[in-house]
Amino acid sequence: MPEGAGGGEFGHPAFALHRGGKMEIRATVPVRDRDDLSLAYTPGVAKVCSAIAEHPELVHDYTWKSKVVAVVTDGSAVLGLGDIGPEASLPVMEGKAILFKQFGGVDAVPVALDCRDTDEIVETVARLAPSFGGINLEDISAPRCFEVERKLQERVDIPVFHDDQHGTAVVTLAALRNAARLTGRSLGELRGVISGAGAAGVAIARILVEAGIGDVAVCDRKGIVSRDREDLTDVKRELAGFTNKVGLSGPLETALDGADVFIGVSGGTIAEAAVAKMAKDAIVFAMANPNPEIHPDVAHKYAAVVATGRSDYPNQINNVLAFPGIFAGALQVRASRITEGMKLAAAEALAAVVADELSADCVIPSPFDERVAPAVTAAVAAAARAEGVARV
Predict the structure, then answer these.
(1) What residue numbers bound the domain in which 306 lies?
(2) Which of 64, 197, 202, 181 minimizes the C-alpha distance to 133?
(3) In principle, which of 58, 129, 174, 226 could form an S-S bond with 350, CB 3.0–4.6 Å?
(4) What keywords tag this UniProt record (predicted)?
């Protein structure tokens, strides 16, 4: 029984909030009488179905497709819980769905799949895709998540977005842009170190390189990902090809010596002595939850800007700042995919929201800042049109 159980009920307030689930489906049209019924269902619905069959693009105008996203998981890498399976993952997927609606005005449907094979996941989601305007992949373990996203995007003509990768990367880049500006530097002047070579770490490295960071080294459990290592997976071998330009090798502590930026997406603990060797005006984003890789009290001794993944400290790197607006923008223009340019535009728009309010405790907006979603939505829609993936 969970902690706090008693009297047949679970004592923690989270259980009360989750009882019966956190979402429901509601009609947007009335069915009050025979006339309403004949329009919402048979025979009136047949006219709409026939029109869509003849002109498939009308599905966006006469169904919910253009405003709904599937939130898809296999339950293999949930939050900080790990491999808990599809049914146990549902509370998280429901939570994601209500955040889509609350912060982006996008309807979302949780889809928890009882399969782990990459091709089976791709096939299943591809067959479900006609019902949705976008696919948000969630909590699928690395390295399978990379292949699932790539293969699925090749199969469908709607956006596929693995939020654990790209949402984290977009928000991290936005915060780093502002932290660099606050400390009088450009991205191109920074050397960064990423702890964690999983989904988030790889995506953050990729977007930072795309954005023009001076250099970035990524570290896994065995140390710095470098070209001279013979134990790299295909993903890490590719990663070594576009990171670590100076050719560092050895443990993470070696990479941190003189580094301007630390980004943690792995858990674990970084020794204070290693943090002390970072460059002046260092930037520390220790984003593991619930325990940051570097405790904020320690980080503040040496860093000019500190961010975490927690809501009880300033500068929370929270994916909810990105994914609702990114999908809202993509759906608005019926984009066929989400490009690197659209992600970069989202990060720039997010950073700009607080550009005139910068301080050490404010390099990224609050998730409840009402300016965020409209800014990201507009930027992503504009980028989609500029890159030729918009259809309206």
Answers:
(1) 165-392
(2) 64
(3) 174
(4) Metal-binding, Oxidoreductase
In the set 65, 67, 96, 343, the catalytic residue is 96
Indicate if 185 and 322 belong to the same structural domain: yes
Burial class (CB in 10 A: 0-12, 13-18, 19+), 171: buried
Contact between residue 135 and residue 315 where contact means Cβ atoms under 8 Å apart:
no
Q: What is the CATH number of the domain that holds 142?
A: 3.40.50.10380
Closest CA to 166 of 188, 145, 192: 145
- Are residues 147 and 226 both part of a single domain? no
Is 289 assigned a ligand-binding role in the annotation?
Answer: yes
pLDDT digits (tens, 9 = 90+) for 57-112: 999 999 999 999 999 999 999 987 999 999 999 999 999 999 999 999 999 999 99
Q: Is 315 annotated as a binding residue?
A: no
Task: Clarify whether residues 202 and 66 are in a common domain.
Answer: no
Task: Specify whether 41 is catalytic.
Answer: yes
The mean pLDDT value of the chain amounts to 95
